[in-house]
Every structure is written in C-alpha cells, then in structure tokens.
C-alpha cells in the first residue's frame, strides 16, 4: 500500500468509524505510534461540525457513504485492500504544499493542512466564529468545511512523514464528471489580488523561479461575469459579510475559487442553466440557483459557482510576523510593497473586494 493509499484509508476509517476502539490494546497502541504513514485520525470538534452538517442538510448516513469504499463485500465488511477506493488522489494543487483527495462520488474535497500555524489558527481561533457565521448566513460563499481531522501522536506525524491534519469540505466542482455533454469544458480560477508583491514573480523579473513555481501562484481572470443589477449587488453584499468575518479574525491571503460552466439553452433559468443542477448536499441548501449550485450569467452563456478558500493565514501568528519583518527589511532596498501574506487584514479585504467588483459587468 502506497503512502497516499494509507492516508486515504486512515481518513475514511476516521469518518466511517471503522477504527474506533474504546480501549485499544497496548500492542495496538504501540503499533499505531510507530506507524509512519497509516495514521489514526480523530475528528476535532466533532459536535461543532455535526451541527454544521445538519445546517447544510447532510445526513450522517449519506455522509459516511461518501467515505465508504464502493466495493464492500456482500457481508458488509470492507476488504482490506480496498479502503482507499472511496477517495481519489488529485495530488498537489497549490503553493502551500497541500495534498488533495476527492471522494469517489465527487461530493467532498479533502485537503491536508501541513503547516502548524495554519491548522492551529483554524482550530483554536477561527472555527467558532466561522461556524456561527455559517449558521447565520446560509448564502455565505465561504467554503463549507464538514470535518477537521487530527492525527493521533505517532512517529509519522511527529517527523512530518505524513500529513497530520486534514480538512473535509464541499467540492465546488461537484457534477463535472457527470456532465456528459460533448465539447463542454468546465474552467476554474483560483483568484487573489495580483497587485501585491510576489517574490517568485517580481524579484529579477521572475528569473530566479521556475515556471512550475510561478504557475502555482494565483490565476488571472480574463473577461467579465455578466450579471443583472440585483445579482451583482447580492454577490457584493455576500462577499462583504464573509470578508468582514475574515478581517475580524485577522486572516489574509484567502482566494476566490471560481468555476465557469457552459450553460445549455434548453435548461430553465430557475435551474441555473445546468442540465442537471445538484439538489442534494453539500451544495444545497439554499436551493438553486445559488453560488453553490450555480448562477446563470445575464447573457445566458455560462453558469458560475464561487467559494472563498484558504483563509488560514493569520497575521498575528509567529510565522506571519517573521515573514512580515523579512519583507519590510527587503523593502528598504527594493520598495515593492507588501505581499498578500504581510499586509493587514483590512487592506487585503479592500483589495480582494475590488478584484471581485472588477470581475463583474452589470447587464
């Protein structure tokens, strides 16, 4: 079993409850401690996330089914060599070094959070305000996080041989695999304000960084999202609320994940323009059309989904403060201005909202 398969199996077992033991034997405890790849995860703040899943109408049986291998044996027991089949590895998608899985049914995305200052900020400071905000704002664009997994103490987790923390969240691209239309391409952008100083891009004109490194920076969105006045105002108002929470918690460097799906002429406007709009969790409630299920552009060409992601970088953490000091020192020589991770949370919010405003064209 590969390292990825071992991690996938551990994630599934933590959610389906297969590894739960009230009183594990000493031999089992010792074996778990010295395991370097197949970690034992616990579900942090389980009651908080169960409450959120209820808010989003995610049934517990359906949720566990997404993490249950599809080829269980007839007697209901999972084959030892098939635990990983419930998850599909999609590798390293970003600059943070995180690894990603999706559930086989496409509903959920699992992201590792390897950096201590990020997962400790989310767990200890952001989680409760986030949960309260999501319960009070059903239309929030903040990505829906359904579980937070922490590895029990082990050699593998201590040495960083395997990711010790994972987030389970909605998959904003849910439904792409089921879209069988010919010549139809779903496009995605991971958007941040690009007016900040990015050393990989701006030092020596980017000559010191590889193309692969620079490709992991935020995307640039070309074109416009054409919306009615009401839809544009709602988009702005929702982002205002969401980013106000993030600024209050001192978060920076978050991004807008945008999905563009070609609309179909024959589909109903109230269905968002998709041939088969998801009417099941995790993308609902609220029912379609919404930015979770898809909002049709005013020109009828596309359906857009959006989610605010990666809000785990807090300005007051030691790592962030060290980075800020380093960039301030560099600016004495070469005045490039702040990075997206060294600016203030209010200033980042201002530029982020400006970026989102500039993407929208009112029809």
TrEMBL record:
UniProt keywords, alphabetically: ATP-binding, Kinase, Nucleotide-binding, Transferase
GO cellular component: plasma membrane
Biased composition range(s): Pro residues: 278-289
Pfam family, one: PIP5K
Keyword Cell inner membrane set for record: no
GO molecular function, one term: ATP binding
Protein name: PIPK domain-containing protein
Organism: Cladosporium halotolerans
